[in-house]
Amino acid sequence: MFSRLLMLSATLLFFLTLPAFAAEPAPDFTLPTFPDNTEISLKDFKGRVVYLDFWATWCPPCRKSFPWMDEMHERYKDEGLSIIAVSVDKKRGQIEQFVKKTEPAFIVAHDPTGKVAKSYKIRAMPTTYLIDRNGQLVMTHMGFRSKDKDKLEATIQSLLEK
User: Fold this and answer.
1) What is the pTM of this model?
2) Does the residue 5 lie in any domain?
3) How far apart are CA 56 and CA 94, in angstroms?
4) Residue 75: how many CB atoms within 10 A of its CB?
5) Fewer CB atoms near the end CB (10 Å): N or C, the chain?
6) Could you please report the per-residue DSSP string of 51-75?
7) What pLDDT sits at residue 35?
8) pLDDT at res. 17
9) What is the pLDDT of residue 36?
């Protein structure tokens, strides 16, 4: 019984981290950013590879991903990578505190109603989408574990080369 459950969990995890079978257009959105409340839209990033990360301040793996996203931003921003971290926290104050403390170099946006997260069918925190230069969803990844970093970076590199 335990081995069946373990096998089922491993299979599910494998399929949750696979690239999407067929690219589909990423849903557009407009959200306010931190700290200046400037609005951004996904359509503004056409021609760039977008690492779109849905996160929350109460999520330990989400918070743990910020230094890595900063590293990716610095390494690949000039090659065409944009990182947008979309918080689904209800209260702006929680995000402001976290942003002041971590000072991310990438874009942090706020989805207080969850409307954008719903359009992306978020099921876990964090959930990341990689969007190609043509605005197509090409990969979905749930969670953030140290062992995932190399695979995520390799996928980013591959998309930047196209």
Assistant:
1) 0.85
2) no
3) 9
4) 13
5) N
6) EEEEE-TT-HHHHHHHHHHHHHHHH
7) 85
8) 45
9) 86
Query: 51 is written with which tokens?
Result: 């690492």
Alpha-carbon distance of 45 to 144, in angstroms, equals: 24
Mean pLDDT (whole number) for 95-114:
96
Looking at residue 27, the DSSP 8-state letter turns out to be: P
Q: 């918070």: which residue's tokens?
A: 63
Percent pLDDT > 90 in the chain is: 83
**pLDDT at residue 22 in the model:** 62
In a domain, 1, yes or no: no
Which whole-number Å values give the CA distances from 110 to 73, 97, 153, in the listed order? 19, 13, 25
Q: Which domain holds residue 124?
A: 19-161
For residue 117, what are the contacts with CB-CB under 8 A and spacing of at least 6? 54, 86, 88, 111
pLDDT at 19: 46
CATH code for position 51: 3.40.30.10
φ and ψ at residue 92, rounded to 5 degrees: -65, -35
CA distances from 131 to 9, 34, 68, 136 (A): 27, 22, 18, 5
Give 84's strand partners: 52, 107
Please check whether residue 82 lies inside any domain of the structure. Answer: yes
| pLDDT tens-digit map of 5-31 | 334 343 444 444 444 446 799 999 999
Domain count, the chain: 1
